[in-house]
Amino acid sequence: MYSNRKTPNAFLIYRREKQSWLRRNYPRTPQRALSGIVAQMWQNELPATRGKYESIALRLSIENVNRSVNNRHVVPTDYVNGLTHFFVIENVVNPVSPPLNKESSSIEDEFVNSIFNFDA
């Protein structure tokens, strides 16, 4: 799905979910104001909530690497002094540990699918 572009980070996933809710409930509010509201909501979220979105972003990033044709990608890890450091992931089969129970996995899958419409 994201093979030719960067996967969304945690804030972008959060923003997509919250902004669609705000658009439905406040249809006459300008987009610029909604963006500011969502940014403020993100700043006020608990670390556990932010962690949920960060884990979804990481999962999407790993799935994107796994979907590649040759499973060889150069992935930026972080920025230090304005420079990006890279590492190479090769032959990634399934770096994510299996879920503890199937029910929690399906709930998380439903959540991700509701945001990105993977099944559509």
Question: Would you give an account of this structure?
Answer:
The protein has 120 residues and is α+β, with helices and mostly antiparallel strands. It has one domain (10-116). Helices cover 55% and strands 14% of the residues. It contains four helices and two strands. The chain has a two-stranded antiparallel ribbon. A hairpin with a 2-residue loop joins strand 1 (72-80) and strand 2 (83-90). Helix 1 (10-25) crosses helix 3 (47-67). The radius of gyration is 17 Å and the shape is globular. Residues 82-89 have low confidence and may be disordered.
Produce the secondary structure layout.
Blueprint (H helix, E strand, L loop, with lengths): L9 H16 L5 H14 L2 H21 L4 E9 L2 E8 L11 H15 L4
Antiparallel strand pairs: 1-2
Helix pairs in contact: 1-2, 1-3
Mean pLDDT: 71
Supply Rg.
Answer: 17 Å
The shape is globular
What number of structural domains do the residues give?
1
Helix content: 55-70%
The chain-level structural class is: alpha+beta
**Proportion of residues in extended strands:** 5-15%
Largest sheet: 2 strands, antiparallel
Please tally the β strands and state the result: 2
Helix count equals 4
Q: Give the SSE string.
A: HHHEEH
Organism: Cetraspora pellucida
InterPro entries: HMG_box_dom, HMG_box_dom_sf
Protein name: 13332_t:CDS:1
Domain HMG box: 6-57
